[in-house]
Amino acid sequence: SGESSNEHAIGVHDQQLQQQYLRRLALRDKLKLALSAHALTVNYQPIICAKTQQIEKFEALVRWHDDQFGFVSPAEFIPIAEEFGLISKLGQFVLERACQDLGRLHQLGYEHISFSINRSINEFRTDNDQVALVTQAIAKYAIPADKVVIEITESVAMSSNHYVNDALAKLKDTGVKIALDDFCTGFSSISNLIEYPVDILKIDKSFVDNILIERNQSLLTQTLIDLAGKLDMQVIAEGVETIEQLNCLRDYGCNQIQGYYFSPAVPIDECIALLSKETR
Ligand code: C2E
Ligand code: MG
Ligand code: MG
Ligand code: MG
């Protein structure tokens, strides 16, 4: 009967939920070990000038290869790290490694390059002094503060938590730049943009995917870029995969682009190779 097939469907669903749950627990345990063993790595994705296609920044993106699970996406393990109290350790590892690698680039003469580093809301929510962690790491490797960008998502920027607001204001005072990541993908309103004095707006891939396809999305993207410019913010478009998308975004006034059109995130040695090929 229909009833029994329905029961069957629920059974399968339960099994899937349980499997997901077990995978999360296994990943949590493995991630804990990987963090202690310093088994994570950091790759860097070039961010290029939309006009000249010269590299101006790199975004630090954490990478994890597990013997059993293979490459696990940060989209999967960052939320696990946040939920199970591992994000501070992970964030500290990425910050330290990124500053070390940026220091190396600067020593090689690529002093115009900035690094952009993602920070999760849970790293701000606690009373951890984010400002001290960041300033110590950049001082240790003699990096000018204005060559470091901290990427936060809207949920961080819009938090009413006073630690978060204090930390963001103090970070800005040190000269570090603040970028608003994945803008317009969650609950957001344009008024937030005016209230939060971020330096850089990152337009999410979901917009870039549609600019050449969907007229209304394209109008919204154009308007966002316009507004950001008027607010003296820089705009970076993410997930640019074709020259047509790049040309369109550049014509809209977008300053920088990042995406597979130019390069995915690569190890630091490949970053150096990419920079050495540029004629300046
Ligand atoms: P995000 O900060 O928005 O980073 C951009 C993501 O888009 C990266 O995915 C990047 O590899 C991907 N991407 C860039 N260009 C293209 C493209 O042209 N096509 C496609 N299909 N994808 C592109 P990734 O590395 O898997 O990271 C996913 C998310 O995980 C990041 O999104 C960020 O929210 C988080 N994440 C990564 N590393 C860190 C980290 O060190 N700390 C924290 N807190 N979060 C991180
Ligand atoms: Mg980011
Ligand atoms: Mg993003
Ligand atoms: Mg994202």
TrEMBL record:
It comes from the Bacteria. Residues 24-279 form the EAL domain. This is EAL domain-containing protein. It comes from Thalassotalea euphylliae.
